[in-house]
Design brief:
Layout lengths: L2 H29 L3 H27 L10 H14 L5 H23 L5 H27 L1
Helix pairs in contact: 1-2, 1-3, 1-4, 2-5, 4-5
């Protein structure tokens, strides 16, 4: 496998993670009661959508194909989030689950960043990582406000 195809594969992994985040946030948002918290979480979800767009275009410009269907792993992750949340949960519990998901995403991005990427790909992954870390800080602030 060439370096370029390894990079595309790694970026597609990150893309899948971003899709999983959007799906999870759909679930979280539908269950949040507090309007202010809902808007904050929608803002974070929007950031993930923006990451998806950037990654997809970048992969295409590298000559690759963005893997845009949420695979079996993603569906299982989504199911796990639903089961973890249970039926009756408060906003604080939902935010904690969102933080867990964001943290998993950050760990995945860090792993990809340590891989064999060219400088431009490394910059893109670094930018996404920074935004995901910012999302965790925002979510933690929401927990403190509860």
């Amino acid at each position: 496998m060439s370096d370029k195809s390894k990079t595309i594969k790694a970026l597609n992994e990150l893309l899948q993670g971003e899709y999983m985040a959007v799906e999870s946030f759909n679930n979280f948002i539908s269950r949040i009661e507090d309007e202010k918290i809902k808007r904050e979480v929608q803002g974070i979800q929007q950031q993930h959508r923006s990451n998806i767009e950037k990654l997809a275009v970048y992969i295409q410009n590298m000559g690759g194909q963005p893997d845009e269907n949420l695979g079996f792993k993603g569906k299982m992750g989504d199911l796990k989030v639903n089961m973890d949340l249970g039926f009756k949960t408060d906003d604080a519990e939902i935010i904690k689950k969102a933080i867990e998901g964001e943290t998993r995403g950050v760990n995945m991005a860090e792993k990809i960043l340590r891989g064999n990427l060219d400088d431009e790909s490394r910059d893109l992954v670094g930018e996404i990582l920074q935004k995901d870390r910012m999302a965790i800080r925002k979510l933690k602030n929401l927990v403190k406000q509860k």
